[in-house]
Amino acid sequence: MTSEALVIDTALVRRLLAEQFPRWSRLPLRRVEPGGSDHVIHRLGGELAVRLPRGEWAAGQAEKEARWLPRLAPHLPLAVPAPLAVGAPAHGYPWHWSVVRWLDGETPAGPAALGDPSADAAALAGFLAALQALPTAPGLAPGAHNDHLGAPLAGRDAGTRTRIAAVADAFDARALTALWDAAVRAPGHCGPPVWFHGDLHTGNVLALDGRLTAVIDFGGLGVGDPACDLVIAWTLLDAPARAVLRTALGVDDATWLRGRGWALTTGLNAYTHYAATDPRIARATRHQIEAALSEPL
């Protein structure tokens, strides 16, 4: 069965729970909308959530998070998901899935949703610094479903240039190309490989009362160049808050430029995949791309 033909509805989730985790099977269950691009999410009772990958590209994320998040979480200053169980394929559903603790909060739409963007920039810097400081596992590579995260940007060169050509009617292709050329030519990561989140944007942070409280969706977790996590600077933060993040992390020019490259390539990827069908993603990715272009080279 292809992911396009797969129906991941509440009835399926209820059957999976009843068979594999009966202790939770009678709790109220409702689908969360909008869900993520990688997962269909259901809230289970008041304290739990069920996450089911939408397709093969997200398969394996449940096992990865269950393995690593309990080891990382105690050392991180913002809340992260707490995996409680990993479910097995069944009832025609072909991938592993997970039950996690529910984290209260909403995904902020942008800087205007934050009560104090500079304070939240400092909180993000503290989170990233703590993550990067943790010991890495010997021999751990970025692994599956990372899409070259933590690796040199050159691995995404052909696809990014194809997408630049595809959006030439919506953006300044010359400016996009100039930024991408500069980012690809920037000196690479010269230190030891460190932990990175891998998909740090507005959809994967939570805020309560205008303050950031949690980071979610660690499916892209890996070890390598941390520049990919700077995408959050151009998706969530305004220019003054970006400066706070950069100063607090001590980011050098080359790493910052690679981070802009990551903001550009991931923004273009999402824009070309979803802008025609999802106005919310279209707005967010347009902002991301334009913010990355807004700084001088």
Number of strands: 9
The share of residues in helices is 25-40%
From the helix content, strand content and strand pairing, which structural class follows? alpha+beta
How far is it from the N-terminal to the C-terminal residue, by CA?
47 Å
Tell me, briefly, the overall form: globular
The parts where pLDDT drops under 50 for at least 5 residues are: none
| Radius of gyration, taken over Cα atoms and rounded to an integer in Å | 19 Å
Q: CATH architecture of the largest domain, please?
A: Alpha-Beta Complex
Please indicate the percent range of residues in DSSP E strands (runs of 2 or more): 5-15%
Number of helices: 9
The level 1 CATH classification of the largest domain is Alpha Beta
Order of helices and strands: HEEEHEEHHHEEEEHHHH
Q: What is the name of the CATH topology of the largest domain?
A: Aminoglycoside 3'-phosphotransferase, Chain: A, domain 2
How would you characterize the overall build of this protein?
The protein has 297 residues and is α+β, with helices and mostly antiparallel strands. It folds into 2 domains: 92 residues, Phosphorylase Kinase, domain 1 (2-Layer Sandwich); 183 residues, Aminoglycoside 3'-phosphotransferase, Chain: A, domain 2 (Alpha-Beta Complex). The protein has 9 helices and 9 strands. The strands form 3 sheets. A 5-stranded antiparallel sheet has the order 1-2-3-5-4, sandwiched between helices. Strands 6-9 form a two-stranded antiparallel ribbon. Strands 7-8 form a two-stranded antiparallel ribbon. Helix 5 crosses helix 8. The longest helix has 22 residues. The radius of gyration is 19 Å and the shape is globular. The mean pLDDT is 92.
